[in-house]
Amino acid sequence: VKNPESDGPPEVWLTCSPGDADAQSLTIDRIDPDELCEPPVTMSDMVAALATQKPTVGGNELVKYEEFTREFGREGS
User: Fold this and answer.
1) pTM > 0.85: yes or no
2) Lowest mean pLDDT segment, chosen from 3-12, 18-27, 55-64
3) What is the count of structural domains for the chain?
């Protein structure tokens, strides 16, 4: 696609659906980083990503953390 930025290469690679008429199958290592157009991340992208994530800390670990914080303070101070 045409580069939306005025500086840099005139054309850049953009992710698309495999069914796109102009799609080319490439691996990321075949694209020069300067020629890769990163799509903006929107709030709806973040909400969708968070909806699929599982907690990485259990409730019992949070209780231990809170007890530690009460005893020793925040950030070790």
Assistant:
1) no
2) 3-12
3) 1
The torsion of the CA quartet 12, 15, 20, 21, rounded to 10 degrees, works out to 20
Contact 8, 34 (CB under 8 A): yes
d(CA 3, CA 29): 20
Please tell me the distance from the alpha carbon of residue 66 to that of residue 60, in angstroms, as a whole number. Answer: 10
* Dihedral of the alpha carbons of 59, 65, 67, 70, in degrees to the nearest 10: -140
Structural domain containing residue 25 = 1-77
Cβ atoms < 10 Å from Cβ of 37:
16
Question: To which residue do tokens 């953390």 refer?
Answer: 65
Quote the CA–CA distance of 58 and 15 in Å, as a whole number. 36
Question: What string of DSSP letters covers 13-51?
Answer: B----TTSTT-----GGGS-GGGB-PPPPPHHHHHHHHH
